[in-house]
Design a protein that fits this description.
- This protein is α+β, with helices and mostly antiparallel strands.
- The protein has a single domain, classed as Ubiquitin-like (UB roll).
- The longest helix has 11 residues.
C-alpha cells in the first residue's frame, strides 16, 4: 500500500483524517499515485493536476523520502521506500510571497 499525506485543505475536501493509503498497480510513479488518488477520491480531481493537461498545478509540490520530486518525470519510479509503504508520498501546498 502506498501512503499519501495530503495538505489540510485537501484532507477536508476528501473528508479524510491523517494519511491516505492507496493500492497502485504496476510501477509506482507520481502519475500512478495521483491517478489512484483521484480515482478513490474523485472530489480531488483538478485540485492537484489540471483537468485537461494533467500537469501539476502551480504551488503544489511532491516529496518522497525527504526529497523534492516535484520536477522529476511523472512516469519515473518513486523510491522503493515509498513503493513498499515504508515512507509516505507527500503532497504539499507551497506558499509564495515575500
Amino acid at each position: 500500500m502506498i501512503r499519501v499525506v495530503l495538505p489540510a485543505h485537501l484532507r477536508t475536501l476528501a473528508r479524510v483524517d491523517g494519511e491516505v493509503t492507496l493500492h497502485v498497480e504496476g510501477q509506482v510513479t507520481q502519475r500512478a499515485v495521483l491517478d489512484a488518488l483521484e480515482t478513490r477520491y474523485p472530489m480531488l480531481r483538478g485540485t492537484i493536476r489540471d483537468h485537461v493537461t494533467g500537469r501539476r498545478r502551480a504551488f503544489v509540490r511532491f516529496f518522497a523520502c525527504e526529497q523534492d520530486v516535484t520536477h522529476e518525470p511523472p512516469d519515473g519510479p518513486l523510491p522503493d521506500a515509498v513503493a513498499i509503504g515504508a515512507e509516505p508520498f507527500l503532497i504539499v501546498g507551497a506558499m509564495a510571497g515575500g
